[in-house]
Amino acid sequence: MTRRASILAYSLVLVLGLLGLQSWNIAAARVERHVIRAIEARTGLAVTGLDKAEIALLPLPRISLSAVSFAQQDGSLSGRALRLRAQARLLPLLVGRLDFDRVDLVSPQLDLAVPAGSDQLGDWLARPLDALQKLSEQSRIVINGGSVFIRSEGAIRSILRDVNLVLDEREAQAPLALAGNLQWRGMPAEISLVWPMAGGRGRTLLSIEAPLLKLQFEGARSSAPEPITTGQLTLATRSLPELLNWFGEAPRLAGALGPLSLSAEARIRPHDTALTNVALRLEGDRLDGALNLATVAGRTSLSGTLAGATLDLGRLLTRLELPAANGTPDSAPLPFETWTAHDIDLRVSVEAARLDGARLSDVATYLLVKKGRFEAGLLRAGAYGGSVKGRLLAMAAPGGIDVKLVGGVEKLNLGRAGLDLPQLARLSGTGALQLSLDGLGQSVPEILASLSGKGTLSLRQGELSGFAFADLLRRAERNPGLALRDWRQGRTAFDSAGFTATVANGVLTLSDAQMAGTGYRMTLVGTAALNGPTLDMAALLQPASGTLRVPFSLRGPLSAPAFDLQTEALLRPAGAGEGETLPLR
Fold first, then answer.
1. What SS3 string covers 469-483?
2. How far is 181 from 188, CA to CA, in rounded Å?
3. What is the H or E stretch that residue 109 is in?
4. From CA 581, how far away is CA 480, in angstroms rounded?
C-alpha cells in the first residue's frame, strides 16, 4: 500500500470512528426529531406528518422521509410529497449535528396561497419569499415531477404541472435563484429567475422560453416605498393572440397582430408597467415610442405613442376578421362588449402605410377605446398627390350601437391611384369625396339598414376608359343601329363629373349626378340599397345640343353591376308604336 493510500484509509477509519463515537439511535422518533428540526432550519418548511424516516451513513450521509407533508409557518405554502430526500453535510455529522446541503422533494403537490386579486409574479412570490428571507441559510432545494396549485381565497387560480425546479443554496439576505422547467396550461416552458430577498435594491432576472414566448428581463428591484422593478425587457412571440390566450386573455383587437417582438426599458409597479425606448417589430414593420400597461379596478388599459417608417394597415384589418356588410337581417348581434372590453389610447404615425393595395404617406392614426365606446381615425394621410381623413365612432346605446362615419378625400390623382387599385383603373383625373353617415342597430345589417347622411363626389379633367360615349352619340345621330357597335371600347374624356347623394334608412338616392365633356352630357338617377348592396339606376346620355337621348341601366350588386344600353328605347323612334324599331345596318 502506498503512503497516499495509507493516509486515505486511516482518514476513513478515523471518520468512521468519530461517527461511531456518536450516539446514533436509529429509532424513528429520534430520527424524526433531528430531521424535522434540521429541515425546518434549512428550508423554512415545517414537517407536519410523515409515514417513515430512514437514515443511511454510507457512502454519503442521507435521510429519506416517506409520504411527508409540510407547510410554511404563515400558511402561504403547504403540500405533501411522495418522498423527501436530504443529503447531510459530513463535517457537522462528525460533531453529532444534522445539516443539509440539498433537499429533494419527489413528486410533491404544493399549495401556494396568494392574495385576492393578485395577478403579478411579485404578488404571488411575496409571502413564500418572506418566509425564506427569515432563514439564516437555505439549502439547495430540488423539486422533481411536482405540481403547484395557486389558490386565492380557497379557489384554484392556476396549476403548474410537471414542475422540475432547482432553488440554489444561498446565505441570509442573498437573492433567490431558481431554474428548471414546468408545464402551464398544456405548454412546456423553461424558466430562470433571480429575485432579491432583502429590502432595498437587488438584482432581478427573469427568463422564460416556451413555444409561444421568449422573454428576457434583467434589472433591479426596489421595495421602498413601493415595489418597483426597472430593467431591460425583450419579448418575442409567433402569435400575440395565441400568447394572450395562453395567459387566459382574449382581447378582440389583439387579433390584428401576428408575429411580434419587442424590446424596451421597463418600469414595473403594482398594476402599472411603463415601457420606454420601445422597439416594436410587427413582421417587416418597426415602430418606436413608449407604451403603458395598467390595471385599474380590474380593467386593463393600454396607452402609448408609436412612430415608424412603414406599417401595413391592411394586414392588421384583415386579421381582425371584421363582420361582413352583406349579412342577413337576422344576423347575430355584434359583440360590442368584447370590442370595448379593454381601454386603449394608442397613437401611431408612420412615413408610409399600405392599405389593401393603396399607398399612403405621412400617416397619423389613432385608436381610442373605452367601455361602451370605440373610436378609430385617420388624422391625416397623403395619397396620390392628395390627402385622406376619416373617423369611425361607435357607442353603446339603448337601441344597439350608435355608429357615426365621417370621411374625406381631397385632390386625389386617380391615374396614379389606379396603378395600385384595380377598381380605379378605368379613371383618370383629380377627385374629391366627402361622406357623413349615422346609423343605429344591433347587427351590421340593422346598422346598414338604418344609415342616414350625405355624400358628395367630384371629378375633373379626366378620362373614363372602357366606354366611348362621344363616338356612340355621333353614330346614334346618323343611324341608331350603328350605336350598338363597339360602344364599350375606347375612352371618354370629361371636364367634370359630380355626384351628390342622400342616404335615408339605408337607401342611397342620387339627387344630382352628371358627367360632362366636349359635345356630351350624361346624367344618372336611381337608388342603391346599402344593406345589399345593390344598384338600381338609370343613365341618360345626350349631346350638348339636340334632342337625341341614349338611355342606359345600371343594375346589380355593387361589386359587379351591369351597365347596359337600352337598345329598345334607342331604336324606337319618337311616336312609334309598341314593337316598332328601326332596322339595323
1. HHHHHHHHHHCHHHH
2. 7
3. strand 100-113
4. 10
Question: DSSP string covering 500-547, please?
Answer: EEEEETTEEEEEEEEEEETTEEEEEEEEEETTTTEEEEEEEEEESSSS
Q: Which three cell numbers stand for residue 292?
A: 403603458
Q: Tell me, what DSSP letter sits at residue 451?
A: -
- How many other C-beta atoms lie within 10 A of the C-beta of residue 251? 18
CA distances from 432 to 78, 91, 284, 320, 553 (A): 71, 90, 32, 29, 25
Cell 344630382 found at:
512
Q: Of all helices (H) and strands (E), which one includes residue 10?
A: helix 3-21
Mean pLDDT computed over 41-70:
79
Q: How far is the C-alpha of 148 from the C-alpha of 145, rounded, in Å?
A: 10
Helices (H), 68-222: 90-94, 121-133
Identify the sign of the CA torsion 255, 257, 258, 260: negative
Residue 437 pLDDT more than 90?
yes
For the chain, how big is the Rg over CA atoms in Å? Answer: 38
- Looking at residue 455, its amino acid is G
CA pair distance 292, 305, nearest whole angstrom: 9
Chain position carrying cell 434589472 = 219
- Long-range contact set of residues 541-547: C-beta below 8 Å, sequence gap at least 24: 541/469, 541/472, 541/473, 542/473, 543/473, 543/477, 543/519, 544/519, 544/520, 546/477
Contact 217, 205 (CB under 8 A): yes
Of 337, 416, 346, 408, give the one whose Cα is nearest residue 375. Answer: 346
Question: Do the Cβ atoms of 113 and 124 come closer than 8 Å?
Answer: no
Instruction: Please list, in sequence order, all residues whose beta carbon lies within 8 angstroms of the beta carbon of residue 254, skipping any fewer than 6 positions away.
Output: 240, 241, 244
Backbone φ and ψ of 44, nearest 5°: 75, 10
**Residues of the chain with pLDDT > 70: what percent?**
82
Which carries the bigger pLDDT value, residue 566 or residue 95? 566
Residue 220 dihedral angles phi and psi, to the nearest 5°? -140, 150
Q: Which residue in 584, 510, 561 sits closest to 540, CA to CA?
A: 510
Cβ pair 358, 379 in contact under 8 A = no
Q: What single DSSP character describes residue 323?
A: P
The length of the chain in residues reads 585
Residue 102 is predicted with a pLDDT of: 84
Q: Which residues lie below 8 Å from residue 213, measured CB to CB, with a gap of 6+?
A: 189, 235, 236, 237, 243, 246
C-alpha cell at 499: 355626384
Nearest partner of 257 among 274, 244, 266, 273, judged by Cα: 244
Band the pLDDT of 117: cuts 50, 70, 90: low
